[in-house]
Amino acid sequence: MIRVALVDDQALFRAGVRMLVDSQPDLQVVAEASDGREAIDVVRAARPDVVLMDIRMPVMDGLAATAELLAYPEPPRIVMLTTFDLDEAAARAIRQGASGFLLKDADPEFLLAAIRTVHAGSAVIAASATRDLFAQFTDASPRPVPESFRGLTDREREIFGLAARGLSNAEIAAREFLSEATVKTHISRILTKLALRDRVQLVVFAFEHGLA
Fold this sequence. Notes:
Elements: E1 2-7, H1 11-22, E2 27-33, H2 36-46, E3 50-54, H3 62-69, E4 77-82, H4 88-96, E5 100-103, H5 108-120, H6 127-137, H7 147-150, H8 154-164, H9 169-176, H10 180-193, H11 199-208
Parallel strand pairs: 1-2, 1-3, 3-4, 4-5
């Protein structure tokens, strides 16, 4: 069972999402909060696997709450909820370690799939949207490429570049004439070598170091 927390200052929105999530046999809403400060308390108490976190809220916004939650020893996966598809605050949250973002008017099936995907830690939510987000809000002066990147094999660098462009495992497999399992293995090795948690962080890494 995937345990979910909802953090949003609109009670009606939370009620709708709760009804949707609780209708699934493998998902359960275990906590709700109406602002970031309350979110920290309920997440600490309920220990959800995934947090759906609104960005703009009173008392403490989603950015500040996300930063605090991700400082925990075993933080939950956090997905930011936003009304704008190119939102600088969402980019900042993902840099902090959030696992992606969703538009509040996303299709219900997409929201459910996103929760499962983030919990599995195996893919980016809306990879192309994440890429567009960072293309819009990344500093023009990239950081120096770290030594860890030089430790990638030529093949791993090719796969890294395609993943950084937002291609899924299936798309990379088709393009490179590989099996999806092989691509998944390459991605896993790349993430380990670069000390990155997931595909979202790979996209961030690529943009911040001028490798996208």
